[in-house]
Structures are given as structure tokens and as C-alpha cells.
Amino acid sequence: MTPDLAELAGVAERAARAGGAVLLEYQDKILEVTLKDTRVDVSSSADLAAQEAVIAAITAERPDDVVLGEEDAPDTSTPAAGLRWWVDPLDGTRAFIDGFPWFATAVSVTLDGDPVVAAVYDPLRDELYAAVRGGGATCNGRPLQVSPATRAAEVVVVVQAQSSDPVVIAEFARLMRAMLTVSGGVRFPGAPALVMAHIAAGHLGGYVERDMPPWDVAGGRLLVEEAGGRVTDFDGQRRDASTRYDVVASSGGGVHDEIVAATGMRFEEG
Fold this sequence. Notes:
Layout: H1 5-26, E1 33-35, E2 42-44, H2 45-61, E3 66-69, E4 83-91, H3 93-98, E5 104-111, E6 114-122, E7 127-132, E8 137-139, E9 142-143, E10 157-160, H4 166-182, E11 186-187, H5 192-200, E12 206-212, H6 214-226, E13 230-232, E14 245-250, H7 253-262
Parallel strand pairs: 3-4, 10-11, 10-12
Antiparallel strand pairs: 1-2, 4-5, 5-6, 6-7, 7-8, 8-9, 12-14, 13-14
């Protein structure tokens, strides 16, 4: 039976707003912070509380659905058939902990590996980025459209990494250099779902990051695609959204082709 995407979208939007409301409550609280690696990758009591609120909102209306939250570290090594909810309760944890105003709650649905519903809620700005497969992308009901730029040199590209692993750091530095070589500028704000929402809105032109899980990018991918952009791996191939992969998101066209090509750049030191 084909699910009613409009119904799912309503649930996703309400759940994302519920998570965002919890994040606002936690802004003035002392947080318990947990390291996921030796220094960089973090979680907090705000993440856990927001996830609880989001999942409760989903299961209250969809009790039989599979709901997977980041804080439970679900397995994404193989494609997931059927309908799956993906929850990133606090997209931008490091920024939230430091009081930097760049975070969101992200909720998405995949159906046999294809993202079909997305809700990314920025509670500080009360901006709800939403999309349904085939129905376009919006922010607070206003239709979104990616940048009309035709060359990577005309756009700002976000390059990110979240790890204390020296190998990951070295690869991030290479990608940063590559994007600085071809783009109109590079940024690293964190919060990938929110970054992709702003690509959909035309505020940013591209995003590159290694090994990204569904809760971080499935919803943002749908927003970008429904706003006229592209999301692929580093080979330019569209991937199953229920698995981890190396992500290139952009406004599409020549911009995307140039960014994909740049991911393969190698440099000689000296």
C-alpha cells in the first residue's frame, strides 16, 4: 500500500517543531556533554531530550512505523527496504553547545531508499523547511529554488568534517583546498541538514562531506532535489538514501559537475 505522503509530511513537520521547542527550552540549561570520539564529535542532554520529543510525536500518530534516531546509532551499512523515519534531533550540536545560532531539528522519511518527506526546523528563526517527493520544497510555505549560478566559481561551497581522526582531518584539508580552487568561497558552519536547506533556498551553492548517514542528509537531499538541485556521491551517482555515502549537494548543472570533478583533485606539497 502506497503511503499518503501529505499525511507523513504533516507528522514530520509537527515532530520537527516538537524537537525544536525542546531545543529552545534547553538553551538556558547546563548541558551534560558526551564525547563520541576523543575530542570533536559530541552529543548532549539536549540531543537526547529533543530526540525523545520527536520520536514521541511520530509514534503517537504512526505507532507501527520504524523510527531511527541518531542518538541510538542505528546500523546504516545496508539499504533499508520499506518506510523508515530518520531523526536528527539536534543538527548542529557543537554550535548549540557553544551558543552559536546555527542548529535545527531534522526529520525525514525514506521509502525503499528514496527520500520522500523532509522537515528541517530552525527554531531560532521559526523557519520550517519542508518537502514532499514531487511536490516541491518550501520554507514556511514559500516555494524554494536553488541558485541560478552555472559555475562553481559563482557560489559558496560548504566543506565539513566531524572527527578527531588524523586520516579524516587530512582528507578534509584536501577537500577544502580543492573547493577553494574551484569555488567562489568555502565555509564550515556545521549542521548539514540546515546547510542543505539553505542550498535549496539558493543561499549556498554546494556542500561536500564524507561518509554521511541518513539522519544527517536524507531530508536535506529531498529539499535540494525538490528545489531543482542535485545530490550525488563523489562519482556523481545518486545513492540509496538509507545508507551512508560521500555527499555532494549543489544547485545542479555545471556547478555540480565542477564540484564532483574537484573532489578528485590531488595536490603535490612543496
